Amino acid sequence: MGSTKIIYVLKNDDFDEVFDLFKNAEAEEVIFIFPKGSRFTKQGQYFEAIKQEADSNGCRISVMTADPVIAEYAAQYDIELLQTPEPRKYSRVSEPSDTELNKLEKPEPEEISEVQLARHQFGPSQTDVELAAFKAETRSRIIKDIIRPGSEIERPIKVREEKARPFEVEIKKEISESRNVGNDITQVWASRDQENGKKFMAAANFKKIKSSKIFKKTPLFFIGGAIIVLMLILYATLGNAQVIIKPQKQSLDFQLKVMVSSVTMAADYDLNIIPGQHFVYKDKVSGEFPATGQKNVIQKSSGQITIYNKSFTEQRLVATTRFKSPEGLIFRIPQSIIVPAASKVGDTIKEGSASSIIYADKAGTEYNIGLTTFTIPGFEGSPKYDQFYAKSMAPMSGGIIGPSQVVTEEDFAKAQEELSDKLKEKILRSLKDQAGELKILDSITIKIDLPATNVKTGEAAQTLKITIEGTADTLAFRETDILELISNYVSKKGDLELLEKDLAVNYLNPQTGADGQNLVFEISVTGRAAVRIDQEKVLKDIRGMKENAIRNYLKNMKEVESARVSLSPFWVKSIPKDQTKIKISVEKN
Predict the structure, then answer these.
(1) pLDDT tens digits for range 231-283
(2) pTM score, two decimals?
(3) Do 131 and 33 meet the contact criterion of CB atoms below 8 Å apart?
(4) Cα distances (Å, whole numbers) of residue 430 to 144, 279, 420, 424, 438
(5) What is the domain class of 3-147 according to CATH?
(6) Distance (Å, whole) CA 284 – CA 286
(7) What is the DSSP letter of 455?
(8) Sequence-distant (≥ 6) Cβ neighbours of residue 41 within 8 angstroms
(9) Any idea where the domains of the chain sit in the sequence?
């Protein structure tokens, strides 16, 4: 036999509240008991809606009432009308006697328990007797429970897991079914304090108990009325809602080609062009490295000299021009050179000068001489002999005949690589100091000049002395422009918002243009993005929604991974209509 439920409707109960109880009754038969003067007499559409809901769910409904208007509505919408028993008169201060109650046919103990529960809730009244009489008439039915408005136990709202339709890049939708409100952030409706819920139910029941003793005591009646009015005011005016939404996430992994331009004043995110500042820096490093080769050599000594000109006419010296030391040792320059003329500033004469390397005329260690002054034998016997001379800048070295250490190609390559790395590091550090908060790429290209050495590969020397110079020509840029560029690209690919927390950007293959005005490179981007939530739309949509409505609304939002709704105070069961009392936040990370 199917279950039957009785819904006792109070005089001032709202249709929405009663209708929600009916929809959640889960019974094959529902009996509505209406008092005289119920609000349901105002609209026949109430019974039409109840009838349609019953027909759609295969539920049989009937009505018991002493109100002729409700009886007329029941007949109009083909709802079974049960006969109301004749009321018995009882004193307000006494219960019906056992003899009177025994006149009613006793149902089985398991069938009367719910009726006794109704008596406990509503107190002895005419309706109590009517219920008992009705129970006697329908004793063949098993009544599972009696539902009163406001007694529904709050249930946590679940959002059914549903996969989102595929984006250009896949987005996973995982909405939790868990009822563990305390530990699961995906619970749509925040848990409420059970104790507070019990207090509210107790207050609601207290408001509906009609005790004859209270009405006899006028002061207590006014105090109770004031309390009820205060509760109604608080119920109607207080209420806040907080909605916390976690949007769907999407993984990012892509590359973009970016241009930094020194002639661009503003970023063009459609063309991936951002402004930059041009920097040029030149520096050099030197070092000494031991020669590791060994062989018999015949080698001339060499060194660096500075040639001076006292005359006011420049002088060209051809290759192999001789220079003689005070000891009579002859050295020659390997290539032609022009020595500038002297200049006069006031009474001061500044000699012209030029530098050149010289080689000994013959091999041997005797040419490895210290610092000295040279004359030019070719000018001997002319005024130029006194006008031109040279001084060595360092001792002459390298002259030898016999076995000696020599610089190998491996020595040269190792020294050049080590000094090049030091030079790049030095230049990059100096550039970053100049750029300040601007971004300088670590992988910029540094142009290295030919190294200057004291000997050539295969020449005799104890050590290799080498100096290298390099130049960095690059553009610096703001990393915030790069983030905006990435964010713009991501938003165009699916209405997404970039999550900077998990973002990783690598700069690849930088190349500076020939004119130094452009820098082109690639960025490799990995991270995550969140689906954009239209908070303004959500705020407007959810105003005034009750629990079932907000649950369905959030469940059907494809952009939402999970959500949490908190209502306060504890008696609030719907979203406030005042937008200022609704707070919506999006947890992206």
Answers:
(1) 666 655 668 899 999 998 889 999 999 999 989 889 998 899 999 998 888 99
(2) 0.46
(3) yes
(4) 85, 11, 15, 10, 13
(5) alpha beta
(6) 7
(7) S
(8) 67, 69, 70, 73
(9) 3-147, 154-193+228-276+477-589, 280-289+407-475, 292-406
